[in-house]
Amino acid sequence: MNAQQALAFVEQHGVVLASARGKVPTLTEAIAGAPIKGSWWGHTDGKHIFAVLSAVQEDNGILVCRLLAGKVTLVHQRLWPALAALASELPADALTRVRQVHTATGKHVNEEIPFPQWLPPEAAAAAAGLDPDRARAALGL
C-alpha cells in the first residue's frame, strides 16, 4: 500500500488507529497487508510503513488525535463535523490535534493544537445542525 492508497483507506473507514488494535481498523496493518505481531518497527517492511504512515499523518485532510482510548487515531476530514458535534461529550484532550515537528537538531517533537483551534469554520458550521446520534453513528462511537 502506498501513501495514496493509505489516504483512501482512511477516507473509506473515516476513523482508524495508527498502530494500536481496537474496534476500528489499524493503518499500519493495512499498509503491511497482514496483521503485525509485536511492534511494526521490527517488521520487515518497517521503513515503508513509517514512510506511508508519515505521509498520511502529514496530510491536511487527516486529523491525528488520541480519540480512541488515548491511542493515536486518524480521522478523515469528512467526519470533523461529527467530532465537533460531540466535542462536549468527549475528553478535551481526545480532540487535540497532534503533529510531529522536525526540529533543527533532527529531533521529532509533538506539537499539540487544542480543539477547536484546528477546526475549519465550515466544519464547525456543519456541526451545528448535526444530530448527536447521527454523529456518534458516523464515528462508530
TrEMBL record:
Name listed for the protein in its UniProt record: Uncharacterized protein
Organism for this UniProt entry: Massilia eburnea
